[in-house]
Amino acid sequence: YNAINDTFSYPQVEYKTQQTQAEKYSVDALQQAFASAKRVMIFSGAGKRDEALNNALSQIGQSAAILADVVSNQHSAGNIRHWDFLLAKKEEAITNELKPDLLITTGTSTVSKNLKLFLRKNKPQYHFHISPTGEVADPFQTSPQVVKGNIAQILSHLNWQNQTTHYWQSWNYWDGRIEQLNAQYFSQAPFCEFSSVKQILDS
Q: Is residue 9 over pLDDT 90?
């Protein structure tokens, strides 16, 4: 039979980067919620390592409680280390002190059951999820508003200097208490799998 020599070419695809009206409203809504918020929590869910995002989170400093999931690849930017252990305590006096009024999330998912239960019970007044693709799940049952765009740029444009450090200080106090309890336990614990792993991680 006669072979067909015609080649197939894909049509040109035009990529538009300008912000849509809906996306603009989402950014404006985030900025308005941020301006009135006193207890800002940022949660980094599952995602690839992003140096620009890491730098943006580091610049925020103590103006927010920054929690990084074990699968986030943003651990160095998190300013609360033992948050999952802390939320496992489920003491009402502690959780009332730590609940946010504004939650900003990134990433695709979380493996922390403690955080899911904490935020489902202590729902923030506002929840915005920043995503480059506009995709969002709702693991905390908080019906987040989606802000589509570059995560690092959007976070950097928020006026963090107007935020106090009081909320972070509350988290940091209890984070320090967990650190003390861990140190006390391992100083008295016999040699075991947990203590040997800790020695390796600390070396």
A: no
